[in-house]
Amino acid sequence: MYTAGTxxxxxxxxxxxxxxxxxIAIVYHSGYGHxxxxxxxxxxxxxxxxxxxxxxxxxxxxxxxxxDLCAVQAIIFGAPTYVGAGxxxxxxxxxxxSNAIMAQGYLWxxxxxxxxxxxGSRSGDKLSTLLQMALFAAQHGMHWVSLDLPPxxxxxxxxxxxxxxxxxWLGAAAQSNVDQGxxxxxxxxxxxxxxxxxxxxxxxxxxxxxxxxxxPAATGG
Length: 221
Ligand SMILES: Cc1cc2nc3c(=O)[nH]c(=O)nc-3n(C[C@H](O)[C@H](O)[C@H](O)COP(=O)(O)O)c2cc1C
Prior knowledge:
By secondary structure, the protein is α/β, with parallel strands linked by helices. It has a single domain, classed as Flavodoxin domain (Rossmann fold, 3-Layer(aba) Sandwich), CATH 3.40.50.360. Helices cover 36% and strands 18% of the residues. The radius of gyration is 17 Å and the shape is globular. The site of flavin mononucleotide has 19 residues, from helix 1, strand 3 and strand 5. Keywords: Flavoprotein, FMN. InterPro entries: Flavodoxin/NO_synth, Flavodoxin_CS, Flavoprotein-like_sf, FMN_Rdtase-like_dom. Residues 24-174 form the Flavodoxin-like domain.
């Protein structure tokens, strides 16, 4: 049974050989707490979907939990955008996965993947971070899931409360004013967008699981 606590509080879990529920890990870094709020919203979205469970881990925790990350069906990556890319702590996790996962036989191959990022500016070069995550997933042979929301807040009827108000397709984006703490930023619309990504990844993961049961040969399983 997987038990996800609040950010940074995920507890050790017993991994069953073939869990009936789809387990979706959320692996994120947050220097100052804003991206942690986004990660918690993604987790809430996963937990909205019947048959899906979330496992929330920081990038530091994840590097102690490689076996658990091999047992899950999907991994959603999250990082703040620092200096136009994912934060250094997130990058350290990426590099550690090279030895721990790739070199051990591409152990994440065919898992579902998705990503989210948060930064101070509305753009802030967040796309660079999402691309970094999508390339990372591709290098692991994972299946990247996009954000299926039209870009919003781009017409005379748009507003700050729109889902996907920042207009990204590759993953969920959030913007946090740099003079506000994580109690106030990112705004609810960005958190709702993150929840949407969690629901979408959980649903897609369940669909893939059914497809694999129906056509195991097609996946080599
Ligand atoms: C070292 C550093 C670099 C940053 N670079 C960017 C940047 O390139 N683009 C941007 O929009 N915001 C940038 N920011 C602002 C952060 O992305 C923003 O404060 C974010 O909410 C921090 O998330 P966190 O609280 O999860 O660490 C930077 C912040 C730091 C500390």
